[in-house]
Design a protein that fits this description.
This is Dimer_Tnp_hAT domain-containing protein. This protein has 20 helices and two strands. It has a two-stranded parallel ribbon with strand order 1-2.
Length: 374
């Protein structure tokens, strides 16, 4: 607000990733408060499923023998997902779905039945949950309806320009009768008009940009050409505006600025996380320049190390998978903490998004921008 007061033409946009993550948190961990009563009444059972999954995870990982039995039946590790990680509940449930058959084989095995002397009650509860088909149906349902939110979160969690990915394709818009394109949405249209009013305080300029916007939406003049209409669906939005936007120069300038900016602050926060690792309470006498240089060296050494063969093989395989901070769980001899970045698809594919054998991998819908096709 202080910056906007001095520079009225500056706009701020909320981080799309954090916004989506807050939505998922409100769904998967709904709080029973007066203001949140409606959401809690609809979503309390999701919190219960999530809590039961955590009980299973903790029961297995907090004891060396149970963890050893688990490793015999399940080829994938049971990730201890950090609470600060985006969509932590969804990531955990996705992993549970992948190892479902291994978990079920484990709890009905002779080894599991023979070794449960220390916590008979919890062991029985864990076994009942894992063998409960209704519980797994709930997990599948949670993953299905949160899928679009999770997919969009993954797409936006990068320092690349992704604003054009916020609106879905024509097929998605036509999927339900209440879905409308951005220019027909009352709230979005009202905010767009406020943006034009702030960006173009002179009435004559504002009239010109409104005319250009109408020509773009109505596919008039140069926007009516065959190539222009066809390339709206085939070209990258920024490329499309560079090729066909010259006749609407005011609107073109806005579109290129919007389509050239990231819509997530995650990249900045990861840099701050590295900085806090280097400039800790024990090293609080480091000068700002030295801390900055160490962050630079640390980050680039990490990137360079991923090109080495030892990063994919050997004892130091994926050494930075947990980021800069590891929190051991009590009694666990084998532990993988997934503090993965969603903008690292190669690592994500290996550790989190492995598909169930025999099933085809999920397809991310073709997503286009409002400025791309109106």
């Amino acid at each position: 607000m202080l910056v906007q007061a001095e520079y009225p033409h500056i706009f701020w946009t909320p981080c799309a990733v954090h916004t989506l993550n807050l939505a998922l948190k409100n769904i998967c961990a709904a709080k029973n408060t007066e203001r949140n009563e409606i959401v809690y009444n609809e979503c309390w059972w999701i919190t219960m499923v999530s809590d039961e999954a955590k009980i299973i995870k903790d029961f297995i990982m907090n004891h060396a023998m149970r963890l050893a039995i688990f490793n015999e039946f399940v080829p994938l590790k049971l990730l201890a997902v950090a609470e600060t990680r985006f969509a932590s509940t969804i990531v955990m449930l996705k992993r549970f779905k992948l190892i479902k058959h291994g978990l079920q084989s484990m709890v009905i095995s002779d080894k599991w039945n023979a070794y449960r002397k220390d916590s008979v009650g919890i062991a029985q509860t864990v076994k009942e949950i894992i063998l409960n088909d209704l519980w797994w149906d709930k997990v599948d349902y949670i993953l299905s309806f949160t899928g679009p939110i999770y997919d969009m979160l993954r797409l936006c969690d990068t320092d690349k320009p992704t604003l054009h990915l916020v609106y879905y394709s024509k097929q998605w818009l036509e999927g339900l009768p209440n879905r409308v394109p951005p220019h027909k949405d009352v709230e979005i249209s009202a905010e767009r008009n406020k943006c034009f009013l702030k960006y173009f305080p002179i009435a004559e300029e504002r009239r010109f940009v409104n005319i250009e916007f109408a020509r773009f939406l109505g596919c008039m003049d140069v926007f009516a050409s065959f190539d222009s209409l066809q390339d709206r669906w085939d070209l990258d939005p920024k490329m499309w505006w560079l090729v066909y936007g010259s006749s609407a120069s005011l609107l073109q300038n806005i579109a290129l600025k919007l389509l050239g900016q990231p819509c997530s602050s995650s990249c900045c926060e990861r840099n701050w996380s590295t900085y806090s690792f280097i400039h800790s309470m024990r090293r609080n006498k480091i000068t700002p320049q030295r801390a900055k240089d160490l962050v630079y060296v640390h980050t680039n050494l990490r990137l360079l190390s991923r090109k080495n063969e030892s990063y994919n093989k050997g004892e130091t395989k994926m050494w930075d998978i947990g980021g800069d901070h590891f929190d051991p769980l009590e009694g666990a001899e084998v532990l993988e903490i997934a503090s993965l970045s969603l903008d690292e698809p190669d690592m994500e594919a290996i550790n989190v998004s492995q598909e169930v054998p025999g099933e085809s991998p999920g397809q991310v819908p073709n997503i286009l921008t409002s400025l791309h096709h109106g």
